[in-house]
Amino acid sequence: MFKKSFLGGKNEERVIEKIKKHIKILYTACETFKSALEKQDIEKMLTVSDLEREGDIVRREVLSNIYEGAFLPFIRPNICKFVEIMDNVLDELKNAAQVYDMGLKLDKDIRTDCIEIAHLNLNMCEMLSITFEALCEGQDLREKMLVIRIYEKKVDEMKLDLVKKLMGREIKTFWEGKVLSDFISYLSNISDIIEDASDYLQILNISIR
Q1: Domains (ranges, CATH) in the chain?
Q2: Across the chain, which distance is largest between two alpha carbons, in Å?
Q3: pLDDT-derived band of residue 93, with 50, 70 and 90 as boundaries?
């Protein structure tokens, strides 16, 4: 019953494979961002925008296949919403990478915390991929979603600590402060959006049973 209502036929399988490709691009973008931040490698950081464009192409293909008739009508909106949210994660990652390229200076203490957040974002992407595979296999998603929520809570705590650290530091110009604030906001928002994406997997899981 599960496979009949969710996987259906070849059109559905094609969409599922493209969604898996979209998640893989997102994982690669998060991994690239973390590595570039660790090595302070601007050239590598700029490739995050290329991955965002690649993800956008896959998103359009998925939506096009769905509008052509893949999946039962009551499932389509939730799948479209899931894919759009994943694309929002790529947008936020690209924004963080572009701000970093604006000459952002991070002292050692702040950079260490930002790398840890990037690491947690990467772990969340991996868990989102595992959760999607579990959905396709008709498995229970609750434990995997709990792990994603634990990661998100950890990022929230780290963002609060980062803000407290920054409040005690001298900022020389308005734009220096704005760029730093934007970078931390983009970086920490990624975990919120991934959690939203996992919520839609649970909605899908309930709706197809």
Answers
A1: 2-208 (1.20.58.220)
A2: 62
A3: very high
